[in-house]
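During the no-cost extension, the postdoctoral fellow (Dr. R.K.) reprocessed legacy sequence entries with the updated structure-token encoder. One reprocessed record is reproduced below for audit purposes.
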Amino acid sequence: MTMKGSAKQVCTNRKAFFDYHIEEKFEAGLALVGTEVKSLREGKANLKDSFARIKNGELFLVNAHISPYSCGNIWNHDAKRDRKLLMHKWEIERLSGKVKERGYTLVPLSIYFNEKNKAKVEFGLAKGKTNYDRREDIRRKDDKRIADRELRSR
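Re-encoded structure tokens follow.
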């Protein structure tokens, strides 16, 4: 359920992979108004500090920032409004069961346009990392970087 070859990437949430263990990835449609779509096509979106929440059996993207359209007028959209994510009801119920487990959250990973030019959100079922896990990841990256550098120098 990830991006295909001819998809146009709008933005990614690189901080999500640093702060969370992503256990499963999902794809959902994004219900937008006209000026939001135009703004996304310009690449003006930010997923920092955003998350997905289940309210009354519906899935919403909360705290995602899509800048107002540059050529818009007085009917421009609110930049940080909650946006509905479009998934099948059985998928939302399955996610709801997982989120109710201790420590799980839904973190958006990227926004993109698929081959049919529909706005999609890729989000992951994630568990928060502890400081120890983060330090371990940094140590592993540093070790790999040093090993690669030594291999190149030979």
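The chain has four helices and nine strands. The first helix runs from residue 14 to 19. The remaining legacy entries will be reprocessed before the final report is submitted.
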